[in-house]
Amino acid sequence: MSFDFDVVVVGAGPVGSTIAYYLTNQGLNIAIIDKKRQIGYPLQCAGILSKHIFDNNHLPDEVILNNVKGAFLHSKNHILKVEKDTTQAYIIDRISYDEFLLNRAIQNGVKFINQKVIDVDSDEALTYLSNSHVIKSKIVIGCDGYNSILSKSIGNNQNSFPASQMLVKIAESNMQSFRNAKSKTEDYVDTYLLEDVLPGFLWVIPLKNDLYRIGLFSNQTHKRQDEVIINFLNQNFEYEIVEKYKGFIPIFDEKSQMVNGRLVLIGDAAGQIKPTSGGGLLVAFDACDMACKYIVEAIDKSDMGILRGYEKEFKAKYLKEFNYQYKVQKTLNLLSDNDIDYLFLKLKENNGEEIISQYGDMDTQSKLVKEFIKRGLIFKIVPTFLFKKVINIFGFR
Q1: How many CB atoms lie under 10 A from the CB of residue 92?
Q2: Residue 42 above 80 pLDDT?
Q3: pLDDT classification of 70: cutoffs 50, 70, 90
Q4: Per-chain mean pLDDT for the chain
Q5: CA distance 396 to 392
Q6: Contact, 81 vs 345, CB < 8 A?
Q7: Residue 27, SS3?
Q8: Is 165 within 8 Å of 213 (Cβ atoms)?
Q9: Cβ-contact 19, 8 below 8 angstroms
Q10: What's the angle, vertex CA 84, arms to CA 79 and CA 86, rounded to 5?
Q11: Residues near 128 by Cβ (< 8 Å), separated by ≥ 6?
Q12: Cys-Cys with 40: which of 11, 95, 202, 212 at CB 3.0–4.6 Å?
């Protein structure tokens, strides 16, 4: 049988470009297809990656705008400061990073096709383009984002949170006043837990030259989210809005398929997103590494059943962590602004800032949750009338 390519990757974002690069390193003939003329635009990401990025992919210095070592956590009336001695996360130029990853793949031999994919056949690995061309490959990989055509084609439900963000200019002295602290502003991210925004949160991410990305994800419409951000800005800063962005954050569903016939899904298309933070790039890069070995073996042995090992391995590694994060999200969703204030106050009284600083991690939050449970802290910080609900969420006996 004649094939146009060994593998067709749909979506030339960071995940599609990474898996395409990995597969060309294995000697496979790869095409990557995307309808966008400018990859990475418009911006639909907060652009913050944990220090673990270097375990999963290359991050060139030229796309790093800032690095941070801690965070200020805000309730309506209280602030917690958590930090470590070294860099914990990198603030990046996501558009430049997306372009870097795609160019790396192309320079490695990947063929880029600037067309719109309108359908796929997962059994035959046929990719249908808007220009009426049909591409035949051995495997198709869906990296086409939260509203994935490929995921829909195999019957997956796709739920998501709306997300909105603005690029805002704020004077450094104004930010220090906001935090009630004289800490160097660019060293810290701010997160804000608000009843109106839960189960998501609002973030303030420092770039450079007094620029910040201020955004949130929630169950609200984009219009309402913009209103929340503007109200937040009006209450706290003198500011200038430079740009506005909007997007969606997929919700992971363990029942959704990541593999069907000759089709493999990775990244947002597979809902591979951390529930509490809404981040997923490092998880997706790790998934690229997992998927690559199964794809190479499936092609080498002409056995597509091998692809199912990718989904099995991913869920074995991440399902338990995601479930912990869902429990945290469900617990927070029970809280009013007064309850969140109570929780922050009790954290301050019970050494919470030091515990979060020591055990907190952007990528693996179960370690911190387990420490809270081990110390009995979870019942000291949650309002008494919510004990039974929290017990049910976490399955305590």
Answers
A1: 24
A2: no
A3: very high
A4: 92
A5: 7
A6: no
A7: coil
A8: yes
A9: no
A10: 140
A11: 117, 118, 119, 120, 121, 134
A12: 95
Report whether 241 contacts 229 (CB < 8 A).
no
**Cβ(33)–Cβ(111) under 8 Å?**
no
| One-letter amino acid of 258 | M
Residue with tokens 């909007």: 246
Cα distances from 81 to residues 100, 188, 194, 337, in angstroms, run: 34, 9, 17, 19
pLDDT for the residue numbered 171: 84
Can you give the pLDDT at residue 369? 82
DSSP strand pairing (188-192 vs 239-250): unpaired
Mean pLDDT on 118-141: 96
Cα 323 to Cα 329: distance, rounded to the nearest angstrom: 10
Lookup result for tokens 């955004």? 215
3-state SS assignment for residue 200: coil
Q: Is the dihedral of CA 195, 378, 363, 206 positive or negative?
A: positive
Task: Classify strands 211-217 and 160-170 as parallel, antiparallel or unpaired.
Answer: antiparallel
Sequence-ordered strand ranges (E) for the chain: 5-10, 30-33, 48-50, 64-68, 70-74, 79-83, 89-92, 111-113, 117-121, 126-129, 134-142, 160-170, 188-192, 202-206, 211-217, 239-250, 259-260, 263-265
Say yes or no to pLDDT of 20 above 70: yes
Residue 348 in tokens: 């301050």
**Cα 375 from Cα 28, distance rounded (Å):** 51
pLDDT in tens, 235-252: 989 999 999 999 999 999
What's at 185, amino acid-wise?
T
- Does the predicted model carry a pTM greater than 0.90? yes
The distance from CA 116 to its chain's CA centroid, rounded to whole angstroms, is: 24
Q: Rounded distance, CA 13 to CA 40, Å? A: 6
Q: How many residues does the chain have?
A: 397
Report pLDDT digits (tens) over 308-353.
999 999 999 999 999 988 988 888 888 999 999 999 999 999 999 9
- Distance in angstroms (rounded) separating the CA atoms of residues 194 and 229: 12
Q: Which of 37-46, 152-161, 197-206, 336-345 has the lowest mean pLDDT?
A: 37-46
Helical H runs in 46-190? 53-56, 94-107, 149-153, 172-179
